[in-house]
């Protein structure tokens, strides 16, 4: 092989190795996020399919950068302070999320119930912001954890711009099965979407949690597409009168957050 060919091959191998290293960092971060708890480095290496020596090297580099931190005494690692700063910078840089932080905190304090700001991530629903209410027993969902769309009230609004066939193609069939094995009928789900679009809000009870009701209103862009939702998560035995008051609060809040709406 000529010298030029050798150099090109070496450059390609170096580039491939660098890309593989980035993939492993991403896998490490995703694993910690899914576990939501400090984890042993050897377990991360095993679960992500990364050689243990490589994982230790990655962790040491990321600890120096403060992306990760070692937890003293138990041999585990978790996100470090730099990740908090980066996340805070991101939240401050997105106008809608910045406004939603204020709005969610305000309605949670005013009404006294858990309030959330939610959106789509691919074909899944996730909570972006969560503000607990004043109850001793608090109902909440974990921020950033992807959940099947049919399991949620907000999901029925976040896909309301799609035609029925689009929705069926978009949502994996297995996502219509709830954690307890019950199956949500697709036709009923589509009817819920149409009703929610007409009403300007959605209410679901006893989906993932049999003792919980979720109320959600759509945040829409200038074209009328639902880009996010704001919602309350309340006990299922909350009175109808109280729920109606919360729905009015959510609709007003969603309208304030909807960018460019007339």
Automatic annotation (TrEMBL):
Q: Which UniProt keywords apply?
A: DNA-binding, Transcription, Transcription regulation
Q: Which InterPro entries match?
A: GAF-like_dom_sf, HTH_MetabolicPath_Reg, Tscrpt_reg_IclR_C, Tscrpt_reg_IclR_N, WH-like_DNA-bd_sf, WH_DNA-bd_sf
Among the GO biological process terms of this entry, one is: negative regulation of DNA-templated transcription
A GO MF term: DNA-binding transcription factor activity
Domain (HTH iclR-type) ranges: 19-81
Sequence ranges assigned to domain IclR-ED in this UniProt record: 82-262
Q: Which residues form a coiled coil?
A: none
Which PANTHER family does this UniProt record tie to the protein?
A: HELIX-TURN-HELIX TRANSCRIPTIONAL REGULATOR, ICLR FAMILY, HTH-TYPE TRANSCRIPTIONAL REGULATOR RV1719
- Provide the protein name: Transcriptional regulator, IclR family
């Amino acid at each position: 092989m000529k010298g030029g060919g050798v150099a090109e091959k070496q450059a390609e191998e170096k580039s491939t190795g660098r890309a593989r290293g980035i993939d492993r960092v991403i896998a490490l971060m995703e694993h910690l996020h899914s576990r939501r708890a400090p984890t042993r480095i050897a377990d991360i290496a095993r679960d992500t399919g990364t050689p243990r020596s490589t994982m230790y090297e990655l962790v040491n580099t990321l600890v120096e950068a403060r992306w990760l931190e070692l937890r003293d005494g138990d041999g585990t690692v978790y996100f470090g302070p730099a990740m908090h700063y980066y996340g805070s910078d991101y939240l401050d840089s997105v106008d809608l999320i910045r406004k939603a932080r204020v709005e969610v905190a305000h309605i949670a304090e005013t009404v006294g119930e858990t309030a959330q700001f939610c959106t789509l991530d691919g074909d899944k629903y996730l909570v972006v912001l969560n503000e607990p209410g004043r109850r001793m027993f608090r109902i909440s969902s974990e921020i950033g954890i992807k959940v099947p769309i049919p399991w949620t009230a907000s999901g029925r609004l976040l896909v309301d711009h799609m035609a029925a066939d689009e929705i069926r193609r978009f949502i994996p069939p297995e996502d219509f099965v709830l954690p307890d094995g019950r199956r949500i009928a697709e036709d009923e789900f589509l009817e819920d979407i149409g009703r929610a679009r007409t009403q300007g809000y959605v209410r679901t009870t006893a989906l993932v949690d049999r003792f919980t009701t979720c109320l959600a209103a759509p945040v829409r862009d200038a074209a009328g597409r639902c880009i996010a939702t704001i919602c309350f998560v309340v006990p299922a035995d909350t009175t109808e009168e109280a729920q109606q008051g919360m729905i009015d609060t959510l609709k007003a809040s969603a309208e304030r957050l909807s960018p460019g709406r007339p």
